[in-house]
Design goal:
Elements: H1 2-16, E1 23-33, E2 38-48, E3 51-56, E4 66-69, E5 74-77, E6 79-84, H2 102-118, E7 121-126, H3 133-142, E8 150-153, H4 184-197, E9 203-206, H5 225-237, E10 242-246, H6 249-258, E11 262-265, H7 271-280, E12 283-285, H8 290-301, H9 305-327, H10 349-355, H11 360-366, H12 369-375, E13 392-395, E14 411-414, E15 417-420
Parallel strand pairs: 1-4, 1-5, 6-7, 7-8, 9-10, 10-11, 11-12
Antiparallel strand pairs: 1-2, 2-3, 5-13, 13-14, 14-15
Helix pairs in contact: 2-3, 4-5, 5-6, 6-7, 8-9, 10-11
The structure holds zinc ion (ZN).
Zinc ion binds at residues 83, 85, 127, 337.
Length: 421
């Protein structure tokens, strides 16, 4: 009796932490095997607690078992977006952005996390947040306080004084600068140690100017090669991966030479840069959907006029370079820069990746198995295989025939828990 009571209360505890304590059988008429790059039919996915136990055709389902029959929908691993800003509100750009406090940003993050998960993205890499709002959001999600994807977070992005990762909107008497500003090797090392202390999983830094920052040239290199090499050495010493924001060709090449794990945006990468990335195995995370949004909606959203001008300069070049880099065999992971455009529309990028040269399977792999590798989380996320988290999504049709299917995700399961059906 006592044992039974203990078991019951234990089940209750497991239920409140979101872990399903029972075995669930998910029937999938179609399933995308991202590891082998194949579409499989009539699969059964056996889920034990929050992980996948077995997958295959012809697995017997015992009578009375807990079954989720997804009919002839197509089941995929939960998607991964490697470049998001969950704590950023897409409708408040430029000067409007200044009005949001760190706590307010964390609460934007709670709403955006739910939207992102409902769109089928069960894992994200959050690259840059002030005040460790991203750490708080990740921990709140892990604790079951807030509904959202699994998160890997960078904390404040490192950048030079006056660079893309600084706050350059106010005159000197306000003495405003971003949390991640660090110049020179020792300031850099200290900043990475601080980020590590307060819970960052990875390091993000700005290797060149950007589109949405004031007063810098979008392609201009920021940080010297020496500084970038220090960032990589220090971060790797802490077991962290390094993501470098870079648009201009010189900054991209310096970042690759310094040994970063991924180059974000990579808009103006040249042939040398493509060769260097391929040879070093550096991932490119190219956000080729949001240009469309910025040019259509940017003015209303409060983007600075100079930002719109920069976007017009690099948007199409980035898409052309995406095609070239992919054709050359550079590794690519899906990253959309959500936060620049509204969260939850992440899936819209797939169609652009296919339009600019990927097969639908390659685009899906970039957002699953390949992203998991860059994240340093393979085996846990990004594939439907024994031992991985039971993070599954389903769409009505076949995304290998129509990639737009991924813009309308019908079913989401995270860690064995049904989020959307
Ligand atoms: Zn970004």
């Amino acid at each position: 009796m006592i044992r039974q009571l203990l078991a019951t209360s234990l089940l209750g505890m497991l239920a409140t932490t979101g872990a399903a304590a029972q075995t669930t059988y998910v029937k999938a008429g179609r399933m995308i095997d991202v590891v082998d790059g194949r579409l499989r039919t009539h699969q059964v996915i056996v889920i034990d607690g929050d992980r996948i136990d077995r997958v295959g055709a012809g697995i017997a389902i015992p009578a009375g078992a807990n079954v989720i029959d997804l009919g002839d929908a197509t089941v995929l691993p939960g998607l991964i977006d490697m470049h998001v800003h969950l704590t950023g509100d897409a409708s408040a750009q430029g000067y409007e952005n200044l009005a949001a406090s760190v706590p307010r940003n964390a609460l934007f993050g709670a709403a955006n996390a739910r939207r992102t998960l409902n769109a089928g993205f069960t894992t994200v890499r959050n690259v840059g947040a002030g005040g460790y709002a991203d750490v708080a959001l990740r921990d709140a999600i892990d604790n079951g306080d807030v509904i959202g994807p699994r998160m890997r977070v960078s904390g404040p992005a490192l950048g030079i004084t006056g660079g893309h990762c600084d706050n350059n909107l106010l005159p000197p008497e306000y003495d405003a600068s971003s949390d991640g500003v660090a110049d020179g090797p020792w300031e850099i090392r200290k900043k990475i140690r601080q980020n590590d202390k307060y819970g960052a999983d990875l390091t993000k830094f700005c290797a060149t100017g950007g589109v949405l920052s004031k007063g810098d040239s979008v392609g201009g290199q920021q940080y010297t090669l020496e500084e970038m090499a220090t960032i990589v050495t220090e971060a790797h010493q802490h077991g962290e991966r390094v993501a470098a924001h870079a648009h201009g060709s010189q900054g991209i090449k310096a970042a690759i030479q310094a040994g970063v794990d991924s180059v974000e945006h990579a808009s103006l990468i040249d042939d040398d840069g493509i060769r260097m990335a391929r040879d070093a195995g550096t991932f490119l995370v190219m956000d080729i959907y949001n240009d469309t949004y910025i040019l259509e909606m940017g003015e209303a959203a409060g983007f600075l006029p100079e930002s719109l001008e920069k976007e017009r300069m690099i948007g199409q070049a980035q898409r052309n370079n995406f095609r070239k880099a992919h054709e050359a065999g550079v590794r690519m992971a899906f990253g959309s820069d959500a936060g620049v455009y509204p969260h939850g529309d992440n899936g819209k990028q797939f169609a652009y990746m296919v339009q600019y040269g990927m097969t639908p399977m390659e685009a899906i792999q970039a957002a699953t198995v390949d992203a998991a590798e860059l994240l340093g989380w393979p085996g846990d996320v990004g594939a439907i295989e024994p031992g991985a988290y039971a993070d599954l999504i389903a769409v009505r049709g076949n995304p290998l025939e129509d990639i737009h299917e991924l813009e309308d995700v019908q079913f989401v399961m995270k860690g064995g828990e049904v989020i959307k059906h």
